[in-house]
Design goal:
Elements lengths: L5 H13 L8 H12 L18 H17 L6 E4 L5 H19 L4 H14 L3 E21 L1 H15 L4 E11 L2 E20 L4 E3 L11 E9 H6 L4 H6 L11 H5 L19 E11 L8 E8 L2 E7 L5 E4 L13 H27 L2 E4 L6 H5 L13 H4 E4 L5 H19 L10 H49 L4 E5 L2 E5 L9 E4 L7 H21 L7 H14 L15 H28 L1 H61 L9
Antiparallel strand pairs: 1-15, 2-4, 2-10, 3-4, 5-6, 6-7, 7-8, 8-9, 11-12, 13-14
Helix pairs in contact: 2-10, 3-5, 3-10, 10-13, 15-16, 17-18
């Protein structure tokens, strides 16, 4: 089959866009409702002169989750780690380098905290949260000039420039060079090419994924849409005439999600009618679609950048650079559920009950009366003043009576409490007071509260593990693939106080990716206690001169403790025994302390003859011990030599015996046998 034409490609892409989930079903309507509930916006059925209070169940659940999730994913620990699949040293070092670099990229985004926080919170409120990871090729040009340089300074500068020229990503051009009375003058231009990796949030209303997709990889189309100015497209390198012909954005709002989000700021801004063509916005579609573009009968993922009816880019791209997750995964669905979805029913019911309780209290506190107007002076009754008189004829009880309004607050609160308990069961948020009386509270609540608390923590841990194993796994694996394919130079970075040179072009292994979060209740506290116990065992082993531990293993335990405490740089507090530059200062301090001790010992010897005799005795004991060690070492060496000699003799005898047997076979069969003596 021939290659697909541009018109065929546009038609296929347009059809795939229409099949995106945001244009079908109740997906966007439900997301709008979840955000409305989170913001505690009115339901629309409020009545004048009655309570309009709104319960904040959805917000309470989301905001109770966020501190734990932010501490988990934005703390000092690595969320994911690449692990070697073999015992080869090169494989292990590559896995460590890959883990350090991908974590460095994620943590060193300009707005890293904001991006990850919003990603997680989107998954809590909406049905999913999405980020796009991408790379940008940057060209930086700088001009530098130096004057008054001496011969030595010029030589050093030229040497530095020659080393810079050897870098693949740098070009140096000498613009001007001369010599005057003040010294050498040099002016040059440095051009550098770099690759920057970015992570950006994608709003729910802008994300495109094929409806009914089971997984991200299963989706025929994945992408996003956004508004960009014509000027931005020209800066991206597209032809000005082409950009002028792209129709301006006349987007009909497909969802009110953006208006709900910016309701407190006036909603969507329709007042800015930009007149200058360069500032006008156009709708840009970033799409990754599975199609058979080259006509070979096999579909492949391609990157299509489209604005209006213009295809700006069309190239093969192995992956779809998006990472998406839901707080609650659903089987056989790419899109799961959010925490808001689990709480909206509780918010609706609690809001109605609270309104009814408040309306009831208002009526109780502002009671009404029943009046027989034939026997009552209505003017007296309507005049409200302290100690006022109401004139009646006959029995006052027959003329005026209080209209009773039963108080329902105590009964309604039982229903509210029941709804809170149902919400706690479904979401994991719990109540400190479980409605027990004082005796049961003191006798029973501690155990019950602890059990409820652990169950709630387990639910949040499940959410954390789900986020790690879906979205964060995609992000780490995708970034590792992207840097290995598009970073064309080495990079020096600082990780935990150590300098690390990274060259992704040398990465050859697909390592196993392991999640480090959501593994057990109370991870950090448990880790600190466990490592402290192991350190105690370490001390006992070292006191008994056991070979079961060493300084490096002790350091590893301390590193785990500092990591669990949220300390990013263990080297600020403990020295790695395998890094000489870290242990040098400690060794110097030990030598100084030893010198000071020797100085004090000499002074004591000069003033105490008995101490001198004791010192001589100790030196003798040390000499004997050293001699015994040398003797043991010599004996061990001789035993090893004799063993090697015996092994060699046995090998010679075996070879001679084999040669004799082969010679006999050769003589008997009259055929040439390799290894025989004849």
């Amino acid at each position: 089959m021939p290659k697909m034409s541009d018109s065929e490609l546009l038609a296929l892409v347009g059809q795939a866009e229409k099949e995106a989930v945001i244009y079908n079903g109740e997906f966007m309507a439900e997301n709008e409702k979840y955000l409305d509930y989170y913001l505690a916006n009115p339901f629309g059925d409020e009545r004048p002169d009655q309570s309009q209070v709104i319960s904040t169940d959805v917000s309470d659940v989301v905001e109770s989750d966020m501190p734990s999730l932010v501490r988990t994913f934005l703390g000092s620990k690595n969320v994911m780690s690449f692990e070697a699949t073999t015992n080869r040293e090169i494989d292990i070092r590559e896995a460590e380098e890959k883990t350090a670099y991908i974590n460095w990229i994620i943590r060193n985004q300009v707005d890293s905290f904001k991006v990850q926080h919003d990603w997680i919170k989107d998954a809590e409120i909406q049905k999913m949260g999405v980020v796009r990871y991408d790379y940008e090729e940057l060209d930086e040009v700088e001009e530098e000039e130096y004057s008054g340089l001496s011969e030595e300074e010029l030589l050093i500068l030229v040497n530095d420039l020659s080393q810079e020229r050897q870098r693949e990503d740098s070009e140096i051009e000498i613009i001007e060079q001369n010599l005057d009375d003040e010294g050498h003058y040099l002016k040059f231009r440095v051009s550098k090419k770099s690759c920057e990796f970015t992570i950006k949030n994608i709003p729910t209303e802008n994300f495109l994924i094929s409806r009914n997709a089971k997984t991200k990889e299963d989706a025929e189309l994945i992408g996003d849409r956004c508004l960009v100015s014509r000027s931005t497209l020209i800066q991206m390198g597209y032809d000005e005439a082409l950009v002028r012909n792209i129709p301006s954005n006349e987007e009909q709002e497909r969802s009110t999600l953006k208006q709900i989000r910016f309701k407190d700021q006036g909603g969507r801004d329709d007042s800015a009618d930009v007149q200058h063509w360069a500032s006008q916005e156009v709708e840009l579609f970033n799409l990754y679609i599975k199609i058979d573009y080259d006509g070979d009968g096999i579909t492949e993922r391609r990157h299509i950048l489209k604005a209006g009816n213009e295809i700006l880019e069309n190239e093969p791209f192995k992956i779809a650079p998006y990472a998406m997750f839901s707080a609650v995964s659903m089987p056989h669905k790419a899109i799961g559920r959010g925490r808001a979805e689990l709480s909206i029913q509780s918010q609706r019911v609690n809001s109605v009950l609270t309104r009814q309780i408040l309306d009831n209290i208002y009526r109780v506190n502002n009671g009404r009366v029943v009046v027989n107007d034939d026997e009552t002076n209505i003017d007296d009754l309507l005049t409200v003043r302290p100690n006022g008189i109401v004139r009646t004829t006959g029995d006052p009880r027959m003329a005026v009576a209080q209209l009773e309004t039963p108080y329902i607050g105590d009964k309604a609160l039982q229903v509210v409490q029941y709804m809170d308990s149902k919400r706690a069961q479904s979401t994991g948020t719990y109540l400190a007071n479980q409605g027990l009386d004082s005796d049961k509270l003191y006798n029973e609540t501690a155990t019950r509260f602890l059990g409820t608390q652990e169950a709630g923590a387990a639910k949040v841990e499940l959410i954390a593990r789900n986020l790690a194993e879906t979205g964060y796994r995609d992000l780490y694996e995708g970034l590792a693939w992207m840097v290995s394919h598009y970073q064309n130079s080495t990079l020096e970075i600082s990780v935990l106080g150590k300098e690390l040179t990274v060259d992704p072009r040398r990465w050859r292994t697909n390592h196993k990716l392991v999640a480090n979060v959501g593994l057990a209740a109370g991870d950090d506290e448990t880790m600190i206690n466990n490592m402290a116990s192991l350190l105690t065992i370490d001390q006992q082993l070292r006191a008994n001169q056991s070979t079961l531990t060493d300084e490096k293993k002790t350091y590893n335990k301390l590193a785990k403790i500092t990591e669990a405490m949220g300390i990013a740089r263990t080297s600020d507090y403990f020295n790695d025994p395998e890094v000489p530059e870290q242990t040098l200062q400690a060794q110097n301090e030990q030598l100084l302390a030893l010198a000071e001790q020797q100085k004090m010992a000499i002074e004591q010897l000069q003033n105490n003859p008995l101490a001198e005799a004791e010192m001589v005795k100790r030196q003798g004991d040390i000499a004997i011990a050293q001699g015994k060690l040398q003797l043991d070492a010599a004996k061990l060496s001789e035993d090893q030599r004799q063993f090697n000699a015996s092994l060699q003799q046995d090998a010679v005898k075996q070879a001679q015996s084999t040669m004799v047997d082969l010679t006999k076979i050769e003589a008997t069969t009259n055929k040439d046998v390799p290894g025989a003596a004849i």
